[in-house]
Design brief:
Layout lengths: L9 H6 L5 E3 L2 E3 L2 H4 L11 H10 L1 H15 L3 E6 L3 H17 L2 H15 L1 E8 L5 E6 L5 E5 L6 E8 L2 E5 L4 E5 L17 H21 L3 E6 L7 H13 L13 E6 L5 H19 L14 H13 L1 H24 L8 E6 L7 H12 L5 H8 L56
Antiparallel strand pairs: 1-2, 3-12, 4-5, 4-9, 6-7, 7-8, 10-11
């Protein structure tokens, strides 16, 4: 019988974490045990992670921003194969199923859940004719992959429910994980690495709430004469009764037995706010989202915003799109092709994200001029502009002053226009400048 095992990570072996249970030759760990690897030797439970996502606004905004910018421009599919008619048939079916299961929303939710839990799974639910009908979300904490020690591939999944445990095959679900560094394929929550700053932020916000109550109201010191009151309990009760009637901003009536003194000690709210901002920067940096996109910059220049968006799509968002593109092509599209009776190695379905990065129009103008004048080829121009989807079919540049398409070999275009096909406002005559018109003369 094939031996099926799940490796524990190095940190778990050091901390002495043992598996939750063993089923035959299968061993797996719960999410709670996977999280007990904090560098400060503090136990981090799955409830801490989920509370951070629900209650800390900057955490939720950062994670949902990753999901939003990953899928905001949508995607397209392309099918390649020897027969065009079959490719068209497969593409039509793939696009139809994507609409039925609402794949756009599935991908957004998958990005968010993958960041929160370190993994995400959807069960592929068929209809009565065994056709794909929907994608049912599974509880991330209850799904556990089982890896074959020989092939290092996931053999099946164990899913725990209130009714017991279910065994799901790889073709039964879509499974996405984050930073899976070990053989277990469990994934690591992105919130775990910033739990220290998150806890500090919660403490600072609690202090800010208390300090705000005392910021506008001074502190009163009262001395009560309790000599005529018998019994210590009666004296304490009298002082507590007087203290309970003290309210910020409200008048208090007292007799000569009580002496009052006001001390104007106001907390430094500015120091607390600055500390919260520093902690927020640490948390935001964990996901690589520019602060200006989260409303944490007081002023923002357009050039800075465009540069930040380009860096965002070249960094965190680009990595997310690359991971999901490969995961979908392997798990989702290959499955659809097999169900249609074709070989997915012959007819390949490609998932193409729409490029959502902002266009640098100055760079576009320079590349256009260099392209039409033979200083660079079309491929080089598209590579600089990061326009991969346009490389697949012949493209033409927008005509300007007689400018035509760029030749495939990148040779110069002689269209008879002085100075090339790209016009400039500097070349146009001023209103008060005489114009030579020999033909009109």
């Amino acid at each position: 019988m094939t031996e099926v095992v799940m490796q524990r990570s190095l940190s778990q072996r050091i901390r002495g974490v043992y598996p939750e249970r063993a089923l035959g030759n299968t061993v797996y760990w719960s999410m709670e045990e996977m999280l007990r690897t904090d560098v400060n030797n503090e136990d981090i439970t799955v409830h801490d992670v989920y509370d951070a996502f629900k209650k800390v606004s900057i955490v939720r905004r950062s994670i949902t921003s990753v999901g939003f910018y990953t899928v905001r421009k949508g995607f397209q599919t392309e099918v390649t194969g020897p027969k065009a008619s079959i490719c068209e048939k497969i593409k039509e079916m793939v696009d139809k199923i994507n609409r039925i299961v609402n794949l756009d929303n599935v991908l957004y939710t998958s990005v968010v859940k993958r960041q929160v839990w370190g993994k995400c799974a959807w069960e592929i639910a068929p209809d009565n004719q065994e056709n794909i009908a929907s994608l049912v979300p599974l509880v991330s904490n209850n799904i556990h992959p089982v890896v074959n020690s020989e092939t290092l591939a996931i053999e099946y999944f164990v899913y725990r429910t209130n009714q017991g445990e279910r065994k799901l095959l790889p073709d039964d679900i879509l499974y996405f994980n984050l930073d899976s560094l070990e053989l277990d394929q469990e994934g690591i929550s992105s919130i775990q690495t910033v739990m220290g700053p998150i806890k500090s932020k919660m403490l600072y916000e609690r202090d800010l709430k208390e300090a705000s109550k005392r910021h506008w109201a001074p502190i009163g010191l009262f001395q009560m004469d309790t000599a005529d009151i018998r019994g210590q309990s009666e004296k304490t009760a009298a002082m507590i009764a007087f203290k309970d009637q003290l309210k910020p901003g409200q008048s208090v009536v007292y007799n000569k037995k009580i002496e009052a003194k006001v001390v104007d000690l106001k907390p430094d709210l500015g120091a607390i706010i600055r500390a919260i901002e520093k902690v927020d920067e640490e948390i935001i940096g964990n996901w690589g989202i520019p602060k200006m996109l989260l409303g944490r910059e007081k002023t923002t220049m357009r050039a800075s915003l465009e540069a930040a968006l380009i860096a965002l799509y070249d960094g965190p968002i680009g990595f997310e799109q690359l991971y999901f593109r490969r995961a979908l092509e392997r798990q989702w599209y290959d499955l659809i092709v097999r169900k249609m009776g074709y070989d997915p190695f012959v007819y390949r379905v490609k998932h193409q994200w729409t490029n959502a990065a902002p266009i640098d129009y100055q760079l576009l103008r320079a590349c256009t001029y260099a392209g039409v004048n033979g200083m660079m080829t079309k491929e080089e121009m598209f590579d600089i502009m990061n326009i991969e989807q346009y490389m697949k079919s012949p493209q033409t540049l927008p005509p300007k002053s007689g400018g035509g398409p760029i030749p495939e070999d990148g040779s110069p275009v002689d269209d008879g226009t002085p100075g090339g096909p790209v016009d400039s406002k500097d070349d146009e005559p001023e209103d008060d400048e005489p114009v030579d018109d020999e033909e009109g003369a």
